[in-house]
Amino acid sequence: MVRLLVAASLLSLPALALDPFEIQVYDGTANAAGEPGLELHLNYVARGLRSSVVPELPPDHQAHLTLEPSYGVTSFWELGGYLQGSLRPDGTFDYAGTKLRSKFVTPPGWHENLRLGINLELSLLPAFYDRSRWGAEVRPIVAWEDDRWIFAVNPNLGMALAAPDGHEGPSLEPGAMAKLKLAGIALGVEYFASLGPVRSFLPVAQQEHYLFEAIDVLSWRGVELNVAVGEGLTGASNRMVLKTIVGYAFGR
Fold first, then answer.
1. Closest to 181 (Cα-Cα) out of 152, 157, 212, 146
2. Which of 8, 45, 161, 187 is 20 to 30 A from residue 181's alpha carbon, by CA?
């Protein structure tokens, strides 16, 4: 009954939701100057919502693939982009849009443990995956890392830049992680949410909240590997999402 009420309420709400193509907490690191990198994001909605705001497609059993090249312009400035694709439940493969990003971080050696940064994005997606098509994101980054722990918080602000949702203004989409480093890996949790427009947050039952149990491999030089299983915590969230990130920094 709760799911039916949430689905019905979506018909009158702005189509603001967690980005299903890049489920990641930024930790304030960046490619070294002159260093290219490449990441592959694979996400699968194993048990998801079966309704959506037209013309967007319901996320249930969608698989998302994102190829993310990047380049370190300086020790504190990284440029990158996203080329996105989606595999529908019926086997149809869609082009799912392009994003450009510019990330600025505190340079290596600025502080022994603390890292700060900001990531700026501009996106153009097909209406099936964002009914406003044009969008932007501002992602502040605060991270702390020592020999034992990694903590990071990203209070992201996402914004539609065109109709029908351009009038809603920025929405808050926070992300955070806490992980314990142990024997070449990091174990912990990642949290993601979509709370709705900053000017008036959605009721909690209509917000998206996810908790992921995650493992990262730290011991492979130049290689990034993140694997996680996430559970939705509200009726407006997908019930189970699987994600993997594989990356390589070519200069290391």
1. 146
2. 45
CB atoms within 10 A of CB 144: 16
Calpha distance 14→72 (Å, rounded)? 36
Domains of the chain: 2-246 (2.40.160.40)
Over the stretch 93-123, which tens digit does the pLDDT of each residue have?
A: 999 999 999 999 999 999 999 999 999 999 9
Distance CA 231, CA 239 (A): 5
Average pLDDT over residues 158-166: 97
Q: What angle do CA 145, 101, 173 make, to 5 degrees?
A: 65
Whether a cis peptide bond, with omega within 30° of 0, leads into 164 is: yes
Smallest CA-to-CA distance from 131 within 92, 168, 162, 177 is with 162
With a CB cutoff of 8 Å and minimum separation 6, the contacts of 182 are none
pLDDT band, very low/low/confident/very high, at 18 (cuts 50, 70, 90): confident
DSSP string for residues in 21-81? S------S--PPTT-EEEEEEEEEEEE--S--STTSPP-TT-EEEEEEEEEESSSSEEEEE
In this predicted structure, the answer to whether residue 3 has a pLDDT above a threshold of 80 is: no
What are the φ/ψ torsions at residue 208 (nearest 5 degrees)? Answer: -100, 130
191 vs 83: CA distance, rounded Å: 24
Give 176's strand partners: 153, 191
